[in-house]
Each structure stands twice: as structure tokens, then as C-alpha cells.
Amino acid sequence: MLIRLSLYVCYALALGACTFTWMGTLAHWDWRLELLSHPRPAYVLGLSPGLLFSVLMQHWRWFSLFVLSLVLNIALIIPVYFAVEPPAVDKNQQSIGLTHFNLDRFASEPERALKVLNETGDDIIFLQEVTPALVAEMIAALPDYQVQSLYPLPSSAGSALFVKRDSPVQIEQTAFISLPHTSERRLISVRLHLDQQPIHLLSLHVIRPRNAWTSSYQAEEFAALAQWAQQRQKAGEAVLIVGDFNTTPWSQRFQQLLKQGHLLNGQRGYGLQATWPAAFPLLPIDLCIHSQPLMLTHYAAGQTFSGDHKPLHIHFQLRK
Questions:
Q1: Residue 104: C-alpha distances to residues 101, 178, 317 (Å)
Q2: Are 276 and 38 in contact (CB under 8 A)?
């Protein structure tokens, strides 16, 4: 009886995962289908017990269905584990450490997470969902850093930039921009030089697709971002964009962004590095993309003790 019940449960989970797997391939048809294209690691987990039972019970038709769905999901996820070109680290060349962290404005103890960030020693920290109530806590929890840019808001659109006090990185210019211009979010852009190469950094926070309008607006944000990246590269600048993309690297929108913006996925070669939800991270939605002159020598999701996101730590330098 127990075996039969387990079989039914595993097959039900696997069939659900199968259905969502193939519906997610139709993401361009409807915003709900687009949402189903993201949880592919969860689909892999849901399919695995059903696949095992189908072998044990010799249910080969079910096995064929489950294994095809599993192969599709793995084929979409696996590129993040393989670098297009393995980074050749030059120890004689300057490297910049950068941390991105979505604080979660509803988090109960953000100061704990911020104190951990203070100990990382990265040159630059981008923070998101910065509210006026959090400003004093941020400054107190990051004594090794100074505030370079600050735009607190009671909504999720607030942001901040901190630079390590003894960092050799020289910030030449910062600005708050909106992509597209109708967006209420003020994204922090930073201009600096690495050796003789001008670089533009951008702290990105994209809207969460929770209905037809927000999903459509997210597509507009990615289109505006691709155009911004093209303009910066035409001006001779290298580009690095890091932040809460609210999408996954295997989504059609993300792949289109890379193509239109002439950008590379910095996650390639470093694995899943899931950042959300922090309690049981399954999805990498905090991401980093960059132009060809740059390469990432470190890319890792960090620890957090507060909020629903894990921080993302990266190191980058010029490509040889």
C-alpha cells in the first residue's frame, strides 16, 4: 500500500513537472507561460523520483516521457556550468571586487547581512531596496565603506553605492538613470577606468513579472537595457551590469538581451549560483552580464541571514 501511494505521488509530481516543462517552451505566447520557463531546477527535482520509479516498475512509456522532459531541462540549465572561454587570471593586473545585494525592504534583521558584507573586502557594494529607515543601519553596519551614491525610497526602488575606504578603485562619475525613461527606479551607473580602459557599471533592478502588464514592462526594460549597453560600447566603454534581473539565464528574454546588447553571461563556468529564495535557493535571478573586454575571475552567491535574496560576489578584470 505504501509503495503504491509513493508511486502515485511521484508520478503526479513528475507529470506536473513534465507539463510545466513543455508549457515553458511557449513563453513567447503568454506571460504565464513565460513564468513557467524559470523553475527548471525544480522541474529536475520533481522529475527524478518519477523517473526512478518508472525504471523500477518497468513503465517504459512513462520513462520515455520523464526522461525527455529531464533532458530538456538539463540542456537549458547546463550551459551555466561551462565557460565559453576559461578565464586566464593575470595576477599582475588589477582586479575589482564587487558585491550586489537586494536587501529586501521587509527583512527583519538587515544589519546582520550587512555586517557580513563589510567583511568581504570587495571594492564596491551595490545595495537595492534601500528605504529611508535603513540608511542609518547601513552606514553603521558598513564602517569600512563610505557612501558614494544614495537614493532611498519607501518602495522597492531605492538603491545605494558603497566604496571601500582603502580601495584603489577611483570612481570618476556616478549617475542615477532610468531604463526606460518612464521607470520609477533610479539605477546607479558608475564610470571608472581599469588601466586605460573606460568601464561603465550599472546596478540593475528589473520589475517582477506578476501580471500581464508587469511582464510586458519587464520586456521593455530589457530592450532599453540592451540599447543602453550598445550605446556605451559604441562610445568605447566596457560594460558590466549586475543586479536583480527577476529572470533566469535560460529564459528567452535573457538570451535575447545578451544577443541585442552584445553581452556575455558572467555566470558561465561558475554553475547555478542560485540566489532566490534565500532560505532554499533554487533560481539564479541575481546575475551579472558584461561586454567582451572584461572577464570574471570570481562569481559566487554569498551568505545571508536576512531577506529573500542571497548576495552575489564577483571579481573582474580586463581580458588579456
A1: 9, 21, 29
A2: no
The pairing of strands 264-265 and 197-205 is unpaired
Q: How far is CA 16 from CA 44, 160, 230, 241, in A?
A: 11, 41, 40, 35
Q: Which residue has the higher pLDDT, 30 or 88?
A: 30
158 three-state secondary structure: coil
Tell me if residue 21 falls in helix, strand or coil. Answer: helix
Phi/psi for 181 (5° steps) reads -65, -15
In this predicted model, what pLDDT tens digit does every residue of 50-104 receive, in sequence order?
A: 999 888 888 889 999 999 999 999 999 999 999 877 676 777 788 999 999 999 8
Beta strands in the chain (DSSP E): 96-102, 124-128, 145-151, 159-164, 171-177, 187-194, 197-205, 238-244, 264-265, 286-290, 294-301, 312-318
Q: Where are the alpha helices (DSSP H) in 235-319?
A: 252-261
CA dihedral defined by 159, 117, 103, 204, rounded to 10 degrees?
A: 50
The sheet with strand 264-265 has its strands ordered as 171-177, 187-194, 197-205, 238-244, 286-290, 264-265
Specify whether the CB–CB gap between 221 and 179 falls below 8 A: yes
Residue 190: its pLDDT value, please?
A: 98
Closest by Cα among 41, 161, 40 to 98: 161
pLDDT for position 93: 82
Q: What percent of the chain stands above pLDDT 90?
A: 80
Tell which residue, 250, 275, 272, has the closest CA to residue 104: 275
Mean pLDDT, residues 303-318 taken together: 91
pLDDT of residue 257: 98
pLDDT at 1: 65
Residues facing 295 on adjacent strands: 317
CB proximity list for 106: less than 8 A, separation 6 or greater: 307
Q: Is the CB of residue 131 less than 8 Å from the CB of residue 168?
A: no
